[in-house]
Amino acid sequence: MREEKKAKRVIDTITGPWERRNLPKMARALPSWVKPDHLTVLGIVAGFIIAAGYILTWQSRWWLLLANLGLLIHWYADSLDGTLARVRRVEREQYGYFVDHICDAFTTVVVTIGLGLSPLMKLETALFLTIGYLLLNIYAHVGSYTEGIFRISFNKIGPTEVRIILALINFLLMFFNPVIHLTPTFTLSMADAGGIIISIIFGIVFIVFSIKDAIRLDRLSREERKAQKT
To answer: What are the boundaries of each domain within the chain?
Structure first.
């Protein structure tokens, strides 16, 4: 576990340059009584706000604005908790790593279940999304142990980009979520169709990257054993 926590963080995203410039400034602007743990708790609360926004769409689609507000709060809290610790030089590497990623996983489950309990998406589709996202999360953590690299982004897409995409989708769903009739008795909403496609993409990325890394690590281990014998 020590090696995993000391792994090099790879964050190559579209919003990365802006965040690297501005997040430290935002952290320094916070009052002294605000601690990193406060922001971590705020991130969890934001997850429940997002879920509530989705569930309340049974009453009105305008509640998706609450979900988007929750996304904004979650970005603020999740981006600044670690930044604040680094700016103030109060990092607790093992504790921070554990709490941050446990809370992220929990919040992901809360948000996707909230989406699945809404009229926008079937619960089964939301659970597939959860599984796909958590599989990629597991891949990133295992990779940090085996390679010493913790990938937070894939193809320029990181957590901030995911939130932005989700917020844009929420705006679209406020006005447009047609039902697709696959058979006379089986229908899917547009959100369901999109969720299934994204889940499949998550699964393919997980399988392809995992197989490629396994093959490469197998080759490296064989070369190391051969070198030790000579």
So the answer is: 2-229
The SS3 call for residue 187 is strand
Whether 96 contacts 165, CB under 8 Å? no
**Could you report the average pLDDT of every consecutive run of 10 residues in the chain (230 residues)?**
53 87 95 95 97 98 98 96 92 87 94 96 95 91 79 80 94 90 82 93 92 91 82
Two tokens at 17?
A: 């340059």
Closest CA to 67 of 84, 58, 55: 55
Structure tokens belonging to residue 148: 């010493």
Superfamily of domain 2-229: CDP-alcohol phosphotransferase transmembrane (TM) domain (1.20.120.1760)
Which stretch of DSSP H or E encloses residue 149?
Answer: strand 149-151
Question: DSSP of 56-71, one letter per residue?
Answer: GGGT-GGGHHHHHHHH
Distance of alpha carbon 9 from alpha carbon 100, whole angstroms: 14
Q: What is the pLDDT of residues 68-126, one digit of tens each?
A: 999 999 999 999 998 999 999 998 888 888 898 899 999 999 999 999 999 999 999 99
pTM for the model: 0.88
Cα 180 to the center of its chain, rounded Å:
28
Q: Is 148 helix (H, G, I), strand (E, B) or coil?
A: coil
147 HSE (CA, 13 A, CB side): 18
Sign of the Cα pseudo-torsion (117, 127, 112, 155, in order): negative
